[in-house]
Write a structure and sequence with these properties.
By secondary structure, the chain is an all-alpha fold. It has six helices and no strands.
Length: 131
Amino acid sequence: MSKKLRIIYANAFVLLLFSEIMIALFAHDDFIRPYIGDVLITILICCLCRIFFPKDVPALPVYVFVFAVFVELMQYFQIVKLLGLENNTFISTIIGTTFSAVDLICYGIGCFVFWGAEKIAYSVFRHHNGS
């Protein structure tokens, strides 16, 4: 079962990564890119982690949320600028340069959606297998 879970999470990760890239390249709006993109990024990180830890870390969405808050706090303190990396497009894109409290809400929603989807999927799987 563990191998099957890893494959499911890997497929979800690839799909979400593709979605995030499409959003970054083509969504230049005031809703999808700033909000949906932030919700999806935490789900993407959860899926990436689940590839390596399919069942061993039940609080994974909480850890991912804490990580996302940490990254957002680095934006608040302008860590990219403090490190003199504001001209490095890759680092500026990965860490981000603009703090937004609304991003924290989006990250929380993404982690909650991932947690809920896992609970539903595991419940359906247990019911389907008669356990």
